[in-house]
Amino acid sequence: MIRRIDRTALTIFVFLFCFTRPPFPLFLVSQDQLRIAKHLLLSSPPGQFDLILEDLRNVIISPSSLLTAEWARNVRNEYMERNNYLPKDATQTDSSNRFCNMLKDAILHSNGDISSASTSTTITSACSVTCSDLNDREFAIVGSRENNNNLKNCYSGSWTGRYRAIRSTDDGCKCTLDGTAHIKAHVFEHGNIQIESKYDFAPKLIHAQSSTDDEASLCQCIANQIREWEEEILHSLREMYSKTGDSMLKSMRRVMPVTRTRMEWSLQPHRMVQNLKQDK
Fold first, then answer.
1. Phi and psi for 212 in degrees, rounded to 5?
2. Closest C-alpha to 106, from 239, 219, 255, 275
3. pLDDT averaged over the chain?
């Protein structure tokens, strides 16, 4: 899904909303203002929640009585929950559970060490594995997140994955694996485009491939399946991007401009026109 969400539109909206006289339209009460501010914050692109919150506090009259710290904290928690943010200590895994530790090691080994996956200062990554029991069945929740926020260069993005592995009660070397992946990207240089994609993975039965160490083999098979799913996402995204210019953007482009004159893409005629203007 591609939708246009940009700070320019936000600024125009806030200007119309807040800088009319009187400062706020009379028909908008405080609850309306909070509802609209909350909607804007929950629609924030990756890495821009605090920027939009600061903009709202700068333009809303009497921010102390409206956008309180408690209100902002509650909205932030909802934003993080909607976007499947991992907790700050997400790199910590339940050390008391052997299966958790083995599964996380297998995932890190399959994808490379997340902490050193990139030397870029704009990329941050985290991975967590938590285990618990549900109806006498052990299950593990695998969470992974990677952010690439470089607002100075006008782009930001995030990739969040959550996977659930439920071990079989009859056979410890089997489990059912399902999950979701949530991808968001925002580019706002010479235009503003936000792309948001969600992928759901149907439950799949995973078998351990080795009889010597069933638990270690099962963890490796889980990690391989997660990586296979994510590779499918990358392949579909690459295919979409490669066809964007010839399919989607071409269908949005006018065959002829309003002037009924085709665009001259060669630089030479434009330079000639500029030189003639200078000579005058």
1. -80, -45
2. 219
3. 75
Contact 131, 104 (CB under 8 A): no
C-beta atoms surrounding 172 within 10 Å: 14
pTM of the model: 0.67
CA neighbours closer than 13 Å in the CB half-sphere of residue 95: 2
pLDDT of residue 116: 45
What are the pLDDT digits (tens) for 122-145? 677 777 788 776 555 667 788 888
Domains in the chain (CATH in brackets) are: 8-82 (no CATH), 98-252 (3.90.1150.210)
Report helix, strand or coil for 145: strand
